C-alpha cells in the first residue's frame, strides 16, 4: 500500500494542497460493517454485480491508510435500514468522533417516532454532518416525520449527505423529483447529493443550480467502474466547471472496487483545471467545516 499512498500524496502535493478532505467515507460498528460487506459479496439486489471490497481491513488499518493518503478530514457515513437503529448508530458515531478527532462527527436519521429528538441531541452534541440513505432505508425524504428535522438541520447549517440518486439500482423514493419537492420547502438545507446523483446527473446538477446550498459529492462518479454502467454525459461537463465551488471529494472508502487513487486520477482527467481540483479535493469542504 505504500506505493499507492505515495501516488495519492503526489497528487495533492502537485496541487499545493495540505492534503485531502473526503466527505464520504464509511466507518460504522464492526458488526454492521461486516453485514454491509457480506451484502456486497453476495451481489445483492441494490448492486446486482461483482463488487470486491478493496480495503477489507480492520478499523485501525483503515484509519492508518487514510492518514497515509494525507486525508486530513473524513466522515463515518453510517445509516439505518430500519426503525430503531439510528439513535444507537449516532451514539457509536459520537464515540468514534471523540476517539478519532480527524473524523467529522457524523450522525444519521430515519423517519420514526423520536427522530426530531435524537437529531436535535446529535446536533447539540456537535454533529457536523448527517447521512441519509433513501435507497437502503427505503423511505421518502418528504415523510412528514422528517419535516421538522430538515428545518432543524437547515437552521443549524449542518449538511446532510443524501443517497438520493437511482444508482446503482432505483428505489421507490430515489430520483430528483422528490428531492425537488423537499428543497422547495427547505431551500436553505445544506444537501450534499451523493455520487453526483448518478444516474440522474443532469437533473441533480439543475437542482444545485437552482438552490445555492445544494452540493454534490464525487463518490464513485467518473470512475471506470461507474462509467461502464452509468457514464457521466459529456455535454454536462461545463456545468461541473460552473459549479466548481459546490462539488466535494467523496470516495466511498473502504467499500470501493478499485484503488483510492483512481478516484483522484479520474477527477484530473476531466481536464477542468488545477483550481477546480483544489476546490473539489480540499477547499470547498474546508470552507464548509474548518473555517472559523
From TrEMBL:
<dbReference type="InterPro" id="IPR006680">
    <property type="entry name" value="Amidohydro-rel"/>
</dbReference>
<dbReference type="Pfam" id="PF04909">
    <property type="entry name" value="Amidohydro_2"/>
</dbReference>
<dbReference type="InterPro" id="IPR032465">
    <property type="entry name" value="ACMSD"/>
</dbReference>
<feature type="domain" description="Amidohydrolase-related">
    <location>
        <begin position="21"/>
        <end position="290"/>
    </location>
</feature>
<keyword id="KW-0456">Lyase</keyword>
<dbReference type="InterPro" id="IPR032466">
    <property type="entry name" value="Metal_Hydrolase"/>
</dbReference>
<protein>
    <submittedName>
        <fullName>Amidohydrolase family protein</fullName>
    </submittedName>
</protein>
Amino acid at each position: 500500500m505504500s506505493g499507492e499512498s505515495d501516488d495519492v500524496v503526489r497528487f495533492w502535493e502537485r496541487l499545493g494542497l495540505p492534503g485531502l478532505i473526503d466527505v464520504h467515507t464509511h466507518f460504522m460498528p464492526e458488526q454492521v460493517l461486516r453485514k454491509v460487506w457480506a451484502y456486497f459479496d453476495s451481489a445483492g439486489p441494490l448492486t446486482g454485480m461483482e463488487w470486491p471490497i478493496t480495503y477489507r481491513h480492520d478499523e485501525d488499518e483503515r484509519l492508518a491508510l487514510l492518514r497515509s493518503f494525507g486525508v486530513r478530514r473524513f466522515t463515518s457515513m453510517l445509516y439505518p435500514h430500519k426503525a430503531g437503529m439510528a439513535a444507537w448508530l449516532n451514539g457509536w458515531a459520537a464515540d468514534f468522533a471523540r476517539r478519532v478527532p480527524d473524523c467529522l462527527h457524523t450522525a444519521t436519521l430515519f423517519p420514526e417516532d423520536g427522530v426530531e429528538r435524537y437529531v436535535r441531541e446529535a446536533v447539540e452534541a456537535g454533529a457536523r454532518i448527517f447521512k441519509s440513505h433513501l435507497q437502503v432505508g427505503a423511505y421518502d425524504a418528504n415523510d412528514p416525520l422528517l419535516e421538522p428535522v430538515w428545518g432543524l438541520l437547515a437552521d443549524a447549517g449542518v449538511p446532510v449527505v443524501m443517497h438520493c440518486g437511482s444508482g446503482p439500482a432505483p428505489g421507490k423514493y430515489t430520483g430528483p423529483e422528490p428531492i425537488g419537492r423537499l428543497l422547495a420547502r427547505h431551500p436553505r438545507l445544506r444537501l450534499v447529493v451523493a455520487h453526483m446523483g448518478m444516474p440522474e446527473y443532469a437533473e441533480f446538477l439543475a437542482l444545485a443550480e437552482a438552490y445555492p446550498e445544494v452540493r454534490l459529492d464525487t463518490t464513485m462518479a467518473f470512475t471506470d467502474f461507474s462509467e461502464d454502467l452509468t457514464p457521466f454525459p459529456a455535454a454536462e461537463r461545463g456545468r461541473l466547471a460552473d459549479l466548481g465551488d459546490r462539488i466535494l471529494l467523496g470516495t466511498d472508502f473502504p467499500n470501493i472496487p478499485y484503488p483510492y487513487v483512481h478516484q483522484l486520477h479520474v477527477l484530473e482527467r476531466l481536464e477542468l483545471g488545477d483550481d477546480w481540483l483544489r476546490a473539489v479535493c480540499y477547499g470547498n469542504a474546508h470552507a464548509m467545516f474548518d473555517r472559523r
